[in-house]
Design goal:
With 238 residues, this protein is mostly beta strands. It contains two helices and twelve strands.
Length: 238
């Protein structure tokens, strides 16, 4: 029989598993897609619980204010430019067509004008590996290569806040609130440590579950735990 697991209860939208959006400073992303060269001044650098990296508070020439991911090497009073044929310096926004090979980039757009979808966490960066006729090949932080359209835009530089994960939390309460701000459940325990009503692997017999850890392809959602319809199980024989 299937059980209501935590990852299923998330979808209800109750406060227990709801992200604290009221603490967010706002949506961070690139400016709208235009053909003109624009300039924005950095008026502040803010911290947002919903983002791992610090955010830039930008003021455009037309008076519009918006947030964007902060790169390393910028300060309040600097200017960030966007458009074509502008300088290759941290924070500037260009299309992949205009960025030379080997340049470090972040906040890469999936589709032109969507504001940025990839490489946004603190300390992260990607590299333009090569460019072909109608696409650019980017080396992602995972060391995998991903293809993007040449009209997709990206910011120059490395995301600020590198080394954030090296600082210890020291207290479990600090870790709890940090995870709660990002809608992450903490602490996370294994299924065998739960009660029988909370997980198919739970119960007093603990490590001896009495049922296989493999789940069939046609099992109900509450039973989709362990190895999901594996092609094989056990150690591979040479």
């Amino acid at each position: 029989m299937g059980k209501r697991l935590i990852q299923q209860r998330r979808g209800r939208g109750t406060p227990t598993y709801k992200s604290l959006k009221h603490r967010s400073k706002g949506k961070a992303g690139n400016a709208r897609l235009t053909n003109e060269t624009a300039k924005a001044e950095i008026i502040d650098i803010v911290d947002c619980p919903n983002h791992s990296a610090p955010l830039l508070k930008l003021k455009h020439e037309n008076g519009e204010k918006r947030l964007n991911i902060a790169p390393e090497g910028v300060k309040v009073g600097d200017y960030i430019e966007s458009g074509e044929n502008i300088a290759i310096k941290p924070g500037n926004l260009l299309s992949l067509r205009q960025i030379p090979e080997g340049t470090l980039i972040y906040n890469i757009e999936k589709l032109p004008g969507d504001g940025g979808r990839f490489v946004r966490s603190s300390g992260a960066f990607a590299k333009v590996a090569s460019k072909l006729k109608n696409k650019a090949i980017v080396l992602m932080p995972s060391k995998k290569q991903k293809e993007f359209g040449l009209n997709c835009r990206a910011n120059i530089g490395t995301v600020a806040g590198g080394g954030r994960t090296e600082k210890p939390f020291l207290k479990a309460g600090s870790k709890y609130y940090a995870m709660k701000a990002k809608n992450k459940l903490y602490p996370h325990v294994s299924g065998v440590s739960m009660n029988a009503v909370d997980h198919p692997f739970g119960g007093t017999s603990s490590s001896h579950k009495g049922i296989p850890t493999q789940s069939g392809r046609n099992d109900p959602p509450g039973r989709k735990v362990g190895m999901l319809s594996p092609k094989r199980s056990g150690r591979k024989k040479r």
